Amino acid sequence: MERPLSLLEAVPFLRAYSSGAVFVVKAGGELLERPVWRDGIARDLGVLHRLGVNVVLVHGGGPQLDAVSERMDLPVERVGGRRITSPMLIEAAVREWRGACNLAWVTALQEQGERAMGVSGVDGGLVQARRRPPVVVEDDDGARQTVDYGQVGDITSVDGELIRGMLDLGVIPVITPLAKGTAGEVLNVNADTVAAEIAIALGAEKLVLLTRAPGIQSNVDDVTSVLHWADLATLDRLDAAGALKGGMRPKVAAVRKALNGGVPKVHVVDGRRAGSLLEEVFTTEGSGTLIVNEGGPDAWAGAGVFRSQDG
Description:
Elements: H1 7-17, E1 22-27, H2 35-50, E2 54-59, H3 62-71, E3 78-79, E4 82-83, H4 87-111, E5 116-120, E6 127-131, E7 135-138, E8 144-147, E9 153-158, H5 160-168, E10 172-176, E11 178-181, E12 186-188, H6 191-202, E13 206-211, E14 229-231, H7 232-240, H8 248-260, E15 265-270, H9 276-282, E16 289-292, H10 296-302
Parallel strand pairs: 1-2, 1-13, 2-10, 5-10, 6-11, 13-15, 14-16
Antiparallel strand pairs: 3-4, 6-9, 7-8, 11-12, 15-16
Helix pairs in contact: 2-4, 3-4, 6-8
């Protein structure tokens, strides 16, 4: 159930974030599966934007591409939570992600009265990447194998000025995680990674990963084990204990990248619950997991990071 948000409770956060702050928000493709999830997120993003926060939305499209793959009788292959992308699959991704998925988010934001502009990382050379060579990957069971991910890219640059130009026009950029390769080819890049790199390029105050999970869990099988806060050392301990599996692994890699790249705070939040994003940003208790580079909650209090210390 959505918790009512007190204006008085939000005042300290409004003071901190209402003067041109940049929030980069990534929404997984699973959050398009139900219109109520999509529209709740669009509403929250609209509220942030009207409060003066510069919002950038990066969207995924995993379930949608899986469905297209099945219709085309193409295999769905993932290793370490990351998709193997064939030439035929990248063509399908361009059609599905740059088309239906991107348009769904743009339309939802426009329904909230916001100006939203859909672009892909290929447009204007926004995101450039190098095709990933075969790499050794360890799966959830600890087995190691050499994997060729196909038409998958590792980001080499992000044109932050191009995104800034859109933000200066009062637009919410809605970005599809495709990149231009060094040979001019289109490459698939994990959406969490794209969001992290964009947050770094913009000097964003926050990176928010909206998922279909309540946050980062210390026990992957227990939804009540959500961590209210974590730092990179905490993530290292969880990884060593085998608590980070499947699709959470690229998310945690993006969290590490963003924090090490200078983004002060990363949040992992359940995007299915209306108001969860606003609750995470504008309340002391939050709704998901807040992650910083180091120090834990005692150190954060002096740095102006609001979060209860009882969880």
